[in-house]
Amino acid sequence: MRTRFANKKTLIKARPASRKIVVAVPRQLVKSSPKALLADIRDLILAAREGVARTVNAGLTLLYWEVGNRIRVDVLKEKRAGYGEEIVQTLSAQLETEFGRGFSRRNLFNMVAFAEAFSDRKIVQTLSAQLGWSHFKEIIPQQDELKRDFYAEMCRMERWNVRTLRKKISGLLFERTAISKKPDKLIRKELKAMRDEDQLTPDLVFRDPYVLDFLKLKDTYSEGDIEAAILREIESFILELGDGFCFIARQKRMQIDDRDYHLDLLFYHRKLRRLVAIDLKLEEFDAADKGQMELYLNWLKKHELVLNEAPPLGIILCAGKRQEHVQLLGLERDGIHVASYVTKLIPKKQLERKLHQAVRLARARLEEGKNL
After folding, report:
1. Same domain, yes or no: 257 and 287
2. Cα 2 to Cα 10, 11, 26, 33, 249, distances in angstroms
3. N or C, which end of the chain has less CB nearby within 10 Å?
4. Is the pLDDT of residue 21 over 60?
5. 139, 174, 204 - which closes a domain
6. Structural element, H or E, at residue 145
7. Tens digit of pLDDT for each residue in 300-313?
């Protein structure tokens, strides 16, 4: 006897010597094994629990915003700080008695800070589908409004858990993205596009510097050593690159005329829908590096581009760079991003000072260019 499956029914065919008999059996009557049945029901229960948990988290987040906003408007608008403090203390004692420790004095002030940091309820409602109260508690302390919006939207799009979000903030991700070096008006425009259209740009994806301390490279190493270490620690490397990167090839061979060229690393970014070529350099960035990357990108555009893909982008990952060289070469117009890397973790305060200085210089150059 032979069995085959159709969309709506299971057809069981019997083949006697003289004729063919077809018996139709509804799919729902075909018995599953006890093991398969258990697995299916378990999946249903877990999916339902996850859905309920998301709904509860979203509801609590909006509740905390409403509570914080009400206290902010009705109580803390008073000029007398002592009066507001006394009212909140009394309110907390009453709420804790009835609803538990979630409404402690400290938590109530966290809710107020939440409503102040995210004043638009509609935005909070959208974010709460992916971000829980624990996410917001990590984001609220950021003093800069643009930083808060950046982390909230990236967290929503890339579905970071709280631990990942905390790591991104402590690793100064915002300061390391190209977008942080733009004027506030342009940053707001890109963040709005990300919020309204789920639209990512290379400036939101690429970083500078990349922290590659997990490669555990010694004091002396070659480009080949870096490549080998990256492949050995590919998961950590992709986490540092950011969400959406997929590894394609190492030493991608490109035959041009009678010569062979080899691109160090080739990735694909799913959300940008672009190939991303990475060229590793042991030395500081040199003007000649641009020509080499342009050659790689043009070859990829000619031979590797598929339907509906945007043109490829390039990252020249080097030991250092001189800003005026990068500026005069107009690399961004050609889809080339130059970034430095560090193989040993820099103390956070030192890295923060370095990045803030880079942001100030980049914004000053942009303003200077507008005034010419």
Report:
1. yes
2. 11, 9, 17, 19, 45
3. C
4. no
5. 204
6. helix 145-158
7. 999 999 888 999 99
3-state secondary structure of 65: helix
Kindly report, residue by residue over 92-126, the tens digit of the pLDDT: 888 888 888 888 888 888 999 999 999 899 999 99
Strands across the sheet containing 21-26: 2-5, 9-14, 21-26
The label of the residue with tokens 């974010």 reads 127
Q: Provide the whole-model pTM.
A: 0.73
Sign of CA dihedral 290, 296, 301, 306: negative
Residue 371 lies in a domain: no
Distances (CA, A) of 72 to 67, 68, 96, 311: 9, 6, 19, 49
Kindly state whether residue 361 falls inside one of the protein's structural domains: no
| Residue located via tokens 């009835």 | 98
Q: Which residues are bridge partners to 277 per DSSP? A: 266, 314
- Fill in the amino acid letter for 202: P
Would you give the DSSP letter of residue 261?
A: E
CB of 147 closer than 8 Å to CB of 123: no
Handedness of CA 291, 297, 300, 302 (dihedral sign): negative
For the chain, report the end-to-end CA distance as a whole number of angstroms. 84
Looking at this protein, which amino acid is placed at residue 84? Answer: G
Tell me how far apart the alpha carbons of residues 97 and 256 are, in angstroms, rounded to a whole number: 76
Domain around 270: 209-355
136 contacts: CB under 8 Å, gap ≥ 6: 61, 114, 118, 152
